[in-house]
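Protein folds are increasingly written down as discrete tokens. With that in mind, we are printing a sequence and the tokens encoding its fold.
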Amino acid sequence: MKNKGEKIMMENELVLKVLLKGWKETRQLTLDWIEALSVGQLNQELARPGLNSYTKHIYEMGEVQEIYTAVLVGKEPDMAKVTSLTFKSEKIAVKTKDELIQFLTECDDRFYRVVNRVKNWQEKVSVFGVEVPRFGVIELLIRHETLHHGQFIAFGYILGIQFPQSWRDAWALPLNK
């Protein structure tokens, strides 16, 4: 029979496993989006102030991941890059899809290195002035990326983008006509 501490540890491991699976699936959808679009579509101007291209959205998503990675180890978030990407309208373009994929891969590598070092997932950390358990940071990361997926879908319909199969499956999207 397991003692209370062992049960809590097993429960924490299960919660972490579920959250990390959710993050991996969410990030894979983003990578599938990049693969499905042309460089021109990724760089195309969107009718959204600040985050006015899919490219800028994707860079902002990675920068937010960097913030949450820092928060996991108790650092204060540096909002400068995110604020600039989100609220300034200058154009940011990539020459290849690999630029975006490499950027997100590097963000993921740093994130997973930190995840592997965290010992106490129930310990609270400050996220923009709100105390949340470290588990909550991963949930916030998933929620943030999913918010962008919703924007991708809305603009995708407007622009006539053919959604990747993974997106049609994950979000039950009807095919574009």
